[in-house]
Design a protein that fits this description.
This protein is an all-alpha fold. It is built from ten helices and no strands. It starts with a helix and ends with a helix.
């Protein structure tokens, strides 16, 4: 769940600026254009229970993480000219992967704990999720900023304006508008999309690593886990008798 939040934080960090600055949508339009991910998440949430009951949490979580990795790697192929349709496609796939991975993973982790430790275990999982999101924003944000600054063409700009333009794609567009520089705006879009592709590539790799860890560490099936957890209760009942 921690690595899933790392991936999701990277996706949600780069997307709003892409939709607003590069594609030119306002805040409301940007929010509405994130809904395909929620659609995929709702579909996955409705189907995750029966699928986990049939195949077990290990298979479902691993498959969900592979789907999430595919979505991130597909998103890394985004170009300046891709348009929103392509973004909506991989956002929908992202929702599916997220829905089939994070909730079953948390349920499986909590299912291995004794009942009297379920509360503390849940709190620990929530903390780890927040830590994963914070680390994701810090690391992936630094990666995005570095790539953006490196590829942004500020030729001909005063030093102060060039430094401001390198802060973010939004700042670059503001400077481009004031300087009436279509070249700077185009360079900012290209640099940001390139940085976003790098972030999504890292997210895809992280999701694949998470899938391998899930396949190695999660319990194979719910029945097996229930049998293990029921054994101490039976032993205790026998001792009481």
């Amino acid at each position: 769940a921690t690595l899933v939040m790392f991936v999701l934080s990277g996706l949600l960090f780069v997307l709003p600026q892409y939709l607003q600055a590069v594609l030119g949508h306002d805040a409301l339009g940007t929010g509405l254009r994130l809904l395909p991910m929620m659609g995929g998440l709702v579909i996955a949430a409705r189907g995750a229970g029966p699928v986990v009951a049939r195949f077990g949490p290990r298979a479902v979580v691993s498959a969900g993480l592979v789907v999430l990795a595919f979505a991130a790697l597909l998103g890394s192929r985004t170009t300046v000219d891709s348009g929103y349709g392509f973004t909506a496609l991989w956002l929908s796939i992202t929702g599916l992967g997220f829905g089939f991975s994070v909730v079953p993973a948390m349920d499986a982790a909590l299912g291995t704990l004794p009942r009297d430790r379920a509360g503390s275990g849940s709190g620990l999982l929530m903390t780890l999720r927040q830590v994963g999101a914070a680390i994701g924003i810090a690391l992936l944000g630094s990666l995005l900023s570095g790539i953006f600054r490196d590829r942004l063409d500020v030729t001909g700009l005063p030093a102060k304006a060039a430094d401001t333009a390198g802060d973010s794609v939004v700042a670059a567009h503001i400077i481009a508008e004031k300087a009436h520089s279509a070249h700077l705006a185009a360079s900012a879009n290209s640099a940001y999309v390139h940085g976003m592709s790098g972030v999504l590539l890292v997210c895809g790799i992280a999701a694949l690593v998470s899938a391998l860890l899930a396949a190695a560490l999660l319990p194979r099936g719910t029945a097996e886990r229930r049998a293990d957890s029921a054994e101490p209760d039976l032993v205790g009942a026998a001792e009481d008798a």
